[in-house]
Each structure stands twice: as structure tokens, then as C-alpha cells.
Amino acid sequence: MTRIEGLGPVGITLNISPDETYLDDAARLESLGYSAIWLRGGQIDSLDRISAVVRATDSIPVATGIIPVGVYDSDAVAQLFADLQTTAPDRFVVGLGGPQVPRPLRALNEYLDRLDRSDPPVPAERRILAALGPRKLELARDRTAGAVVLLVTPDYTAEARRILGPDATLVVSLMTVLGTDAARARATARAPLRFLSGVGGYATNFERMGFGADDISGLSDRLVDDLVAWGDADAIVARVHSHLAAGADHVVVSELGERPGEVARQLATRLPLRA
């Protein structure tokens, strides 16, 4: 598949607040120079959130990380894509993920079939798939523009690139904690890790990366340190560069902790935000 045009090397995750202040945040992130804004799937309580972010910004691509296919039907996603192609051409990247069902690959293929048959269709080059294991990476390679991987090491990024081949887009979503107090940073990182390690696929992928049962069940320091970038801004920048060097086309910086916006501000002056 063709790589997604205009995505650039470094994106940023937008935190969707209950009120509309997140729209001001989106405009601020665009002004900082990030090459894409990503919306967390767990915060997309309505597809209208995506349209609102596109309208609140000028030209930056807006991607979903991810739209859960078990929550939003393909007709609604296809209609949203068609509407945004009319008003803001080629700015919406349709990130898809899930579903949490016994045969997820079959369900994903059927969902992608429906997007192909939509009028107009959602083209493969404007959609990307959350993928961890080899079979989902192969599906992402064959039926979309590429894959988004979360909670991976740079070594696994290199393996994902090998599976995807040279022509697909590889996006790494990187959780970050700005702070040099190891105990506090790790405690902050463990909150989402504790939840995600119980979601199908993540614990299995941790095993693929060489983490043992004790690492996974106890969320060991080694696991936290390898999967979440914490420390000062320079330490986070170094981790971003390590994923880019391992084969990622685009790294999404996802901020954790009690200083919202500070990682985005500090990294903006230290990273190559545009290709």
C-alpha cells in the first residue's frame, strides 16, 4: 500500500475534555508545529468530535487512534469521511481498531469490505489499522495504508517494519511521562499499563517482546521503562528518535501525568516536527 501523504514524522495526542476547551488545545498544538493530531479512541464518544477538531484547525491532518469498529458502524464512518473530504480534503486519517470478539480478523475484514463498497468508498490509502501481532500487521499491510502500534520497544518497531515491508505506513504511539522522579513516573505509567495489559493482545505482545510472566503480572520496572518514555524532555526525544531510526514513519507523542501540554511544548523545540 501507499504511505499516507502529509503525515510527517511526529504527531501529538489531543486530550478531549468534557467541555469544548479541547478545540482551543487542538489549535495550539497545530501552532506548535506538530505534523498530525491524534484522537484517543476511548475519548471519541461521538464521531462529531472528529469533525469539530478538523474545523478548529487549519491544515493539520487529524487521525483517530482509534475508531473502535465494534462501536461505530461502517456506514457512519464512511459518511464522516465523505463529508470531511468535501470540506477538508485529505485531512482525516481513519484509524480503526478492534473489535474484541472471538474472530477479530474476520470481523475487521468484513468491516473493511463495507468501507470499500461505500459510496463513495473510504480508500485504503486514507485508513490505518491498530495492530500488534503478525497477523494484524499483515492485514494492515494488505488492506490499509499501514499500522499503528502501541506499547512496543524499538526492536519491535523494527520487526513491525519487516512485516509491513517498505511501502506501508508505520505509526508508533508512544506514551510519555515528563519527570525525572523514577518512582512517580513509573507509577503514572502503570495506570494505563494496568488496564491495557488486561485487554486482549497486549499481554501476548509483551511476551513476544521478551517480557516474562512476572514482568507482565507485576508491571516490572523493566517493562515500564522499555515501553513508556519517561524522564526529561531530552530523554523523551531520544526515545522518539529510536523508533524513527527503527523504521517508524511517524511517532505519536501521548502525554501522561499531571502537566497536560508541557510535553508538547517542550518537545516542539527539540524534534523534527515536519518532514
UniProtKB/TrEMBL annotation:
InterPro entries in the cross-refs: F420-G6PD/mer, Lucif-like_OxRdatse_MSMEG_4141, Luciferase-like_dom, Luciferase-like_sf
Annotated Luciferase-like domain residues: 26-97
Keyword entries, A-Z: Oxidoreductase
Protein name: TIGR03620 family F420-dependent LLM class oxidoreductase
